[in-house]
Amino acid sequence: MTIGIALFLVSGFYNYYRAIVQFKLDGLYHGLLGIKILLAFAVFFLGSALVGRSPRFEGIRNDSKKWMAILLLLAALVVAIAGFLKVRPKQAKSTAAASAVSKLEV
CA-CA distances (angstroms) from residue 3 to 10, 22, 44? Predict the structure, then answer.
């Protein structure tokens, strides 16, 4: 499980780096992506706590129905944010400024 999480993180940060270099995206993209990353960390933590054997997380495993529902909700939010980021128009900062200037000139 740890190797799978590590691969998800490495590939996700690589794709994020490529998006920064290639598109120079706006603040909404970066904000939503930051929220998505934090939610994904919570999903990884809860998933690991639910299947692990550490005595520290025995309380989570004892109330697994509640924590599994939370885990599924967080995972659905991660997928929803990812879907929104995928389909929204990619508007670079420089393009947004240029379109604002062109509207003023008309």
Answer: 10, 28, 12
Tell me how far CA of residue 74 lies from CA of 42, 91, 97, in angstroms. 8, 27, 35
21-33 tens-digit pLDDT: 777 778 888 888 8
> Does 48 map to a domain?
yes
pLDDT of residue 90: 67
At 74, which amino acid appears?
Answer: L
Domain that holds residue 60: 36-95
Question: What's the predicted TM-score (pTM) here?
Answer: 0.73
Q: How far apart are CA 22 and CA 48, in angstroms?
A: 34
Domain count for the chain? 1
Instruction: Give the closest residue to 50 by CA, choosing from 38, 39, 64.
Output: 64
Distance CA 1, CA 7 (A): 10
Inside any domain, residue 29: no
User: For residue 86, is it within any domain?
Assistant: yes
| Domain-embedded: residue 73 | yes
Q: What pLDDT is attached to residue 24?
A: 72
